[in-house]
Write a structure and sequence with these properties.
The complex is a heterotrimer. By secondary structure, chain A is α/β, with parallel strands linked by helices. Helix content of chain A is 33%, strand content 21%. Chain A has a six-stranded mixed beta sheet with strand order 5-6-7-3-8-9, sandwiched between helices. In chain A, strands 13-16-17-12-18-19 form a six-stranded mixed beta sheet, sandwiched between helices. A three-stranded antiparallel beta sheet of chain A has the order 2-1-4. Chain C is mainly alpha-helical. Classes of the chains: A alpha/beta, B mainly alpha, C mainly alpha. Chains A and C meet through helix 8, helix 9 and strand 15 of A and helix 9, helix 10 and helix 11 of C.
Chain lengths: 475, 309, 322
């Protein structure tokens, strides 16, 4: 690789991004030059996506500086990003999708150049791809859509691509196609382009990156040429350096009952057990839990004794009923327990809500206040109370601790332990390894499947990271 | 992919062909220049209104006011455009702009299109009543001549339908601008991420709908020679049905202008066919509903098969 | 928006109630009409408003429940259902005395079947409610035309007397509308079922994940709106001396308009029973006001449309401010 003589494409100096009190990115300095291929790794919440959005111009930094030498903005500098979530228009053809991001294609007969450009780009990256540029995107299998998205990322669109950010680009590609992509990235960088490569497949990162940056808690904790990292060293750099002193292992031989949950995927849980789900975010844990809950409850009937309850982590989408008070938000899951002839017993409702407000410590002087008047953490407590107040023997929790402060977390952990010893089963997906380490058993997910089942004393951050990232050689 | 979901235009074409064959079988005399003219006479305004509705469905909205709007245009055409052509043209241009503004407001304030267009249907209907409290007016001579012209080989209605389909196909399917408009229905986030203004694009889509609504009203008056404030109220339903029959979807920007025109022709023909069947006129409306449900069921079956394959 | 509820004055609390606006508007229209006659005919006007408003209120409350189910939920088959139920009920009664309840049962049975059919189309064929109820309404309309055969059958005398009669100076129809309003209010505010409905309308996915049987709720709601429409059709036909094929036409837009004007959220999850009644009165009073001022139907419609859109815009800016 040639030495970096030319000017950098993008330079970040002490760039930070805060969302309210959350420091998603806490002072990052970085410059990307032509020819660089940067591997970007980090665990959930390390700040990878925030960094990507700063570089591609999606966010403005809260503090610090970001500069594109020789260009006014990211688009002009030739910065492109290819995301995991598909950003194609499914009703348009492959060539037509190029038109969306390339306004240079105008006039009569724009299709011919569009077809030519996209086909050339596909041919260059994925030789022998067999994708028809006139096929509508929603008729293509998911892997081919991902290929189209990558090809559009690298294709000339008025400006040439100079820095392409690839976020988990190989997640839906098979090994052969992924290999083609890696080869292309190498030649693209060799000819003066630059790439930021994010992947949970560490083999790929080692194969393609010239430099690896490790992010943790919004900071760069390590930045070295790839050759100076070993795989084990990389995993250690991502994790917490200090040894965990959770002391949970002593309780490892807790008495648990018979198996109450068994899914096709291989997820099992016993009565009274706290089962953790882990792995990188977006690898199928949330879907597995939602599917499990939906299969245990009905669209048509709600009995007096539900089999399970659900605690949502994505509050606006899955949990909060925004027009209602705290009271009604909490009672919705136990209405059937306190109704008489279908009429809500409002005194009992009030009493139960007040009790749980006290037990879980929701900060409000009046439970009839709107639920949206609460902070995020207190809203989450309402959802916890909703679940714990019901009589359901199984509690399914989809990353419920987002935005909850440390004190509350400790309270809730204690409450969960307490309920578990009384025979309740908890299925707990968390993006925070610390929480998962408190579970009796842990399933690690990767690519929508269970990649490991861990039991004490093997429930450690290291083991979980190992199972989350693909450690094998990418070939 | 199943054959039918790959070539979604096939289902509407087959429906029209089958219906046409059945009509000719029942009434062989219809297989002539004048027969066809009679069968499809009223298809032109319906086809134009269907295209207008398609523009709205294309950007994931629905227009419950198109029938009232076409009625209003008919009233304007039969009065102002006939008496004071320049003023009439100005009014029609203002109506198109009003439609575009409606689209911009709906997107910018994130309003439910159903309710806004419903409210607008009161407004259009009220204006129409205001202009023409009782049926009357007269079609401008040139419009009358245009709508009753007798081209060689094919009757006016068929020529016009082909022309409408061709022009809108070029505009919506072939042109780069039309592609971006369809993209709004497919994935509005991708459009705004590419740096385009969704509000402006929606205004364009609504403006185009207004344009075709105006053409529909003018064509209608050219055929009927007079107007009244309720002349085209049923176009709201017909236009939605026409788009759906033509293979369009309610969401996702999946529309086909050719299909929409074919859908409009099918609906027009269905009415004639039912009268040939000597089916009591009581069932005419109901059979339109039944046809709509049948086609949607058929499509569901095909798309299920497509998923399974 | 928190912590202010305790310190607000009673007036401020009253103004913050969304239903107050439709009642205030109705009162204004009432006063404006009477202003022209310098106060004469106030009793008659109120009586007429209660009679005609009741039909709009009954239909509107049904539509309100459906709209409460959330975005995209709407029943466009209301007019056809009204006509069909009225036609079949009057034919079954055949003007024979003593058949009023038999006719009512027929009308409600029609409503029940229509509701089931509508929901079957929505659920089984996965059609958007707007198109499913639209297509189905064409069929109901045809059945009504076919069974009516242009005959105008008079309602049984007793029933007609009841429909046009009064009790304690208030039209019987309005009593029924009031009774239904109380029923709907209890359903929404006191019953588990109502909580489920409101939860579904706010966020169907969240409601489902909280254990609400959302499809059962939706099915019951589509049946309820059809029952309300069929009852309104039955009463309207008895009131006006027979069923007419176009008797339901104006109630399509009316039913949606009163829901919007009544202060219910078009985005779902927020019902407002008193507001719908107020809006129903307003819709009648504004027409009579404009009539007494001599304005034509055209101006009236333009005004109605403008009011609907203005309210939707006002509601959306309020939502955005929060």
């Amino acid at each position: 690789m040639s030495e970096h003589e030319s000017a950098p494409i993008v330079t970040l100096t002490d760039a930070a991004k805060h969302f309210g009190p959350v420091r998603a990115l806490d002072g990052v300095s970085l410059s990307v030059r032509p020819g660089d291929c940067l591997g970007l790794v980090g665990h959930n919440g390390a700040g990878k996506s925030t960094l990507v959005y700063l570089v591609n111009g999606g966010f403005a930094p809260s503090a610090g500086e970001i500069a594109f030498p020789g260009a006014a903005n990211a688009a002009e500098a030739g910065v492109r990003s290819v995301f995991q979530e598909l950003s194609l228009c499914p009703n348009l053809t492959v060539a037509e999708n190029l038109r969306i991001s390339n306004r240079g294609l105008t006039g009569i007969g724009w299709r011919r150049p569009a077809r030519k450009v996209i086909t050339e780009s596909l041919d260059r990256i994925f030789p022998g791809h067999g994708i028809d540029p006139d096929a509508e995107v929603d008729t293509l299998p998911i892997a081919e859509r991902q290929m189209v998205e990558i090809a559009i990322g690298f294709a000339p669109r008025g400006t040439e691509a100079r820095l392409v950010i690839l976020d988990e680009p190989t997640s839906s590609l098979d090994a052969g196609i992924a290999e083609q992509l890696l080869t292309h990235i190498k030649s693209f960088c060799a000819s003066g382009g630059a790439v930021i490569f994010i992947s949970h497949m560490l083999g790929e990162v080692f194969q393609v990156a010239s430099r690896i940056i490790v992010l943790k808690d919004g900071r760069i904790v390590a930045e070295r040429p790839t050759a100076e990292f070993s795989r084990q060293g990389l995993v250690e750099a991502m994790g917490h350096v200090a040894a965990e002193g959770t002391g949970q292992a002593a309780e490892a031989v807790r008495h648990t009952g018979e198996i109450v949950i068994r899914t096709e995927q291989g997820l099992t849980a016993r009565a009274g057990e706290i089962v953790g789900l882990s792995g990188l975010a977006g690898h199928g844990q949330a879907q597995a839990l939602a599917k499990l809950f939906l299969s245990q409850s009905s669209n048509w009937r709600a009995g007096h004794d539900p089999k399970s309850v659900f605690v949502a982590g994505d509050r606006p989408r899955d949990g909060i009923l925004p027009l209602w008070s705290i009271l009604k938000n909490m009672s919705i899951s136990f209405l059937r327990q306190i109704e008489r002839w279908g009429v809500v017993d409002r005194a009992a409702e009030r009493a139960m809500t007040e009790e749980w407000k006290k037990r879980i410590g929701i900060r409000t002087d009046d439970v009839t206040n709107p639920v949206l008047s609460l902070s995020g953490g207190n809203q989450q407590k309402v959802l916890f109370a909703r679940a714990l107040a019901s009589t359901a023997p199984v509690v399914i929790m989809d990353d419920p601790m987002r935005g909850v402060d440390v004190g509350t977390k400790q309270d809730v952990y204690a409450m969960i332990r307490d309920e578990a010893t009384r025979g309740r089963t908890f299925l707990w997906y968390s993006t925070e390894t610390e929480e998962v380490c408190q579970c009796d058993r842990v399933f690690v997910f990767r690519n929508g499947e269970i990649s490991a089942e861990l039991t004490p004393p093997n429930i450690t951050e290291e083991r979980i990271l190992e199972a989350s990232f693909h450690m094998q050689e990418a070939s | 992919m199943s054959f039918f979901s790959r070539y979604r235009i096939l289902l509407p074409v087959i429906s029209l062909a089958v219906l046409l064959a059945a009509t000719f079988y029942m009434q062989p005399r219809a297989m002539s220049y004048f027969g066809l003219n009679l069968l499809f006479n009223l298809a032109v305004p319906i086809a134009l209104a269907t295209i207008a509705q398609m523009m709205i469905l294309m950007v994931n909205d629905i227009d419950l006011s198109i029938g009232a709007f076409v009625s209003l245009v008919a009233c304007v055409t039969a009065t102002f455009l006939n008496d004071a052509p320049l003023l009439g043209l100005l009014i029609l241009a203002a109506l198109i702009l009003a439609y575009a503004a409606m689209g911009a407001v709906i997107d910018a304030l994130d309003l439910p299109a159903i309710v806004v267009t419903l409210g607008m249907s009161f407004v259009w209907g009220g204006l129409a009543l205001f202009i023409l409290p009782s049926p009357g007016g007269a079609a401008p001579g040139w419009l009358r001549t245009l709508m009753t012209v007798k081209p060689p080989f094919m009757p006016m209605a068929v020529v016009a339908a082909i022309l409408i389909a061709f022009v809108t196909h070029m505009l919506i399917i072939r042109s780069g601008f039309g592609t971006v408009l369809r993209g709004v229905g497919g994935n509005a986030r991708a459009i705004s991420r590419a740096g385009l203004s969704v509000t402006r694009l929606k205004a364009w889509a609504y403006g185009l709908a207004g344009l075709f609504g105006v053409l529909a009203g003018m064509a209608l008056v050219g055929l009927t020679t007079a107007a009244d404030a309720n002349i085209a109220l049923r176009y709201t339903l017909l236009s939605i049905a026409g788009v759906i029959l033509g293979g369009g979807e309610f969401t996702g920007g999946k529309v086909s202008p050719t299909g929409a025109v074919i859908g409009a022709l099918t609906l027009t023909l269905a009415a004639s066919f039912l009268s040939f069947l000597r089916l009591s006129p009581d069932w005419q409306i109901g059979s339109q509903g039944a046809i709509l449900i049948l086609v949607l069921t058929a499509r569901l079956v095909f798309s299920r098969k497509g998923d399974a394959a | 928006m928190s912590s202010s509820s305790a310190s607000r004055s009673p007036l401020a609390v009253l103004i913050s109630r969304p239903w107050i606006w439709s009642w205030a508007a109705a009162a204004l229209a009432f006063a404006a009409t009477l202003g022209l006659t310098s106060g004469r005919g106030g009793g008659e006007l109120a009586y007429a408003a209660l009679s005609f408003g009741a039909f709009a209120a009954i239909v509107g409350m049904g539509q309100m429940l459906v709209i409460t189910l959330g975005p995209g939920n709407i029943d466009l088959s209301v007019p056809a259902t009204m006509t069909l139920a009225a036609t079949l009920a009057l034919r079954a009664m055949g003007s024979e005395p003593g058949t009023a309840f038999y006719g009512l049962a027929i009308a409600l049975a029609v409503g029940f079947c229509v509701g089931i059919a509508n929901f079957a189309l929505i659920f089984l064929l996965r059609l958007p409610p707007i198109i499913a109820t639209l297509a189905a309404s064409l069929i109901y309309q045809s059945i009504a035309i076919w069974s009516n055969r242009g005959l105008r059958i008079k309602p049984p005398e007793g029933l007609a007397e009841f429909a046009t009669g009064r009790f304690l100076g208030v039209p019987n129809i309005a009593w029924i509308g009031l009774l239904l309003a109380i029923l709907v209010w209890v359903l929404l505010e006191r019953l588990t079922w109502g909580r489920w409905l409101l939860a579904t309308g706010q966020n169907q996915r969240a409601a489902r994940l909280a254990g609400v049987p959302v499809e059962a709720v939706r099915a019951a709601t589509y049946v309820t709106v059809a029952l309300f429409a069929s009852l309104a059709g039955y009463l309207l036909a008895s009131f006006s001396g027979g069923a007419a094929l176009n008797m339901g036409t104006e109630y399509l837009l009316m039913s949606i308009a009163v829901v919007v004007i009544g202060g219910c959220s078009v985005a779902g999850g927020d019902s407002n029973v008193p507001g719908v009644w107020g809006a129903a009165l307003f819709m009648f009073l504004v027409v009579s006001m404009l009539n007494s001022y001599g304005t034509g139907a055209g101006v009236r419609n333009v005004l109605t449309g403008t009011i609907i859109i203005a309210i939707v815009i006002a509601a959306s800016t309020r939502r955005n401010r929060q």
